[in-house]
Amino acid sequence: MVRPLVGTGVTPNHLTTLRLASGLAACGFLALGTDTGAWWGGGLWLASAFLDRADGELARIGNMMSPGGHLYDYYVDQAVNVLFFIAIGFGLQESWLGAWSVPLGFVAGISLLVCNWWSELLERASGPNVRAYSGKWGFDPDDALYLMGPLAWLHWLSPILVGAAIATPIIMTITGIRLQRIRAARASATPGPAGP
Length: 196
Fold this sequence. Notes:
The protein is 72% helix and 0% strand. By secondary structure, the chain is mainly alpha-helical.
């Protein structure tokens, strides 16, 4: 779908900026905790998730990849995805979660941030073309983002938040252990200084 944009002057960074704007707007609506907020937030989140994939695709097929563009995309993704959980935490204060929703949002969001940071370090330490968490059957773990919009429309974000607040710290811990093991293996494989 992004192929018609090749050669038009539209760059991946333009799409990343739209991803940032739509993601932040979605978070703002979802934080309201209203039916209208859920509808607008869900729709904008779906658009943001699509743009998250579109900027990388445009960079690849248009031969517009750059280290700066990768960093911009990475930081935008981290900010928007972390804020999503914090926003729904605020928006679910009137749900059955009550006062627990905000702390759960922060637990899920901060754990996701640390997990993604450690995943990036893990991939760098593992070598080229290695992913910390690769998908299967043509699905990437990030594809779950597409579900959040419809789940917001169905008012099913409460169990998503609880699940994220439980699962994300576990995955973060596993990622940290994997990273530590790789670092320890590399340190033990590095020859020490020669003796006298």
